[in-house]
Specification:
Helix 2 crosses helix 9 and helix 3 crosses helix 4. Strands 1, 2, 3, 4, 5, 6, 7, 8 and 9 form a nine-stranded mixed β-sheet that branches. With 286 residues, the protein is of the alpha/beta class. It is 34% helix and 14% strand. It is globular.
């Protein structure tokens, strides 16, 4: 199987000056359109997010919903979040706060522990930032594509295992969403090697620790939405079906959506999965 294609794209965000002007205007006037701003992150050494970048997309008319934390794919080698910008904007248009984040992939010296910790800390930073805006406690839902779906599942099911030095307090995880995830890394040892830097034969315990199936019986049980395209030629649909079965057997409430004709590269297109993700998130609201 070829390495999953990155969910990054060529989308370029607005210039920082424009964002700052929008934020200044929002301080005195009602927000009429979604506003995107860089998330204020801990300085290097203060948290596992470090200097990684993330964008907060603030909806114009917020609704009761967990904060969506988007996690890009890239075969654990790259992690370009720009391809998830349209999905972030689409979810914000439904009233959902969104943080479009990234992590340190193998090309940037990342490994299993740092990648998952980056996602966990991003969720905590997202909860803190949105709570600062709304004045209310919020829940978070990581939403990952491809390798990002694998990391999002680990961050949701085993956050305490990886959050060794986050700057923010733990966030309440309301569930997670996986888009075309290669969850059982034991099935793709060659592709997942950059995640571990060692073969499964050389360190089977570490590979087990990086496999979301290991944590299927985690407590408390979390709802999950698993989406996959029927025409995905990079990550077979049965990865999602297998993971859904494991989670359901362990007591998690799982919704599985196999989208006809959707591919690995189109599954995160808001026209393909945006409505079902938004509806699922809104249904989680108390």
């Amino acid at each position: 199987m070829a390495p999953p294609r990155t969910s990054g794209g060529a989308t370029v965000r607005a210039a920082a000056a424009v964002v700052l002007l929008a934020l200044l205007a929002a301080c005195t006037e009602p927000v009429t359109e979604p506003v995107t701003e860089p998330v204020e992150e801990p300085a290097a050494g203060e948290g596992r997010i470090g200097e990684l970048q993330a964008d907060l997309v603030q909806p114009s008319q917020p609704v009761d919903s967990p904060v969506a934390v988007l996690v890009p794919g890239g075969g654990w080698v790259t992690a370009d979040r720009s391809g998830l910008t349209p999905l972030a904007d689409a979810l914000a248009a439904e009233g959902i706060f969104v943080v479009n984040t990234t992590y340190r992939p193998a090309d940037a010296g990342g490994d299993l522990e740092s990648m998952v910790a980056d996602v966990v800390c991003a969720m905590r930073a997202a909860a803190r930032r949105v709570a600062d805006i709304t004045g209310e406690n919020v829940e978070v839902v990581p939403i990952g594509h491809s390798a990002g779906a694998h990391l999002a599942a680990l961050a949701a099911l085993a956050d305490d295992e990886f959050a060794v030095s986050c700057a923010d307090d733990p966030a309440v995880v309301a569930g997670f969403v996986g888009l075309a995830g290669p969850y059982d890394v034991a099935r793709v040892p060659d592709v997942a090697f950059p995640l571990f830097g060692v073969s499964p034969d050389a360190d089977p315990d570490r590979w087990a620790a990086g496999n979301p199936l290991t944590y299927a019986s985690s407590d408390p049980a979390l709802p999950a939405l698993l989406i996959h395209g029927s025409a995905d030629e990079l990550v077979p649909v049965d990865f999602t079906e297998q993971f859904a079965e494991e989670l359901s057997s362990a007591g998690h409430a799982v919704e599985t959506r196999i989208v006809p004709e959707a591919t690995h590269g189109s599954i995160f297109d808001p026209a393909v999965s945006g409505d079902m993700i938004a509806s699922w998130l809104l249904a989680l609201a108390p």
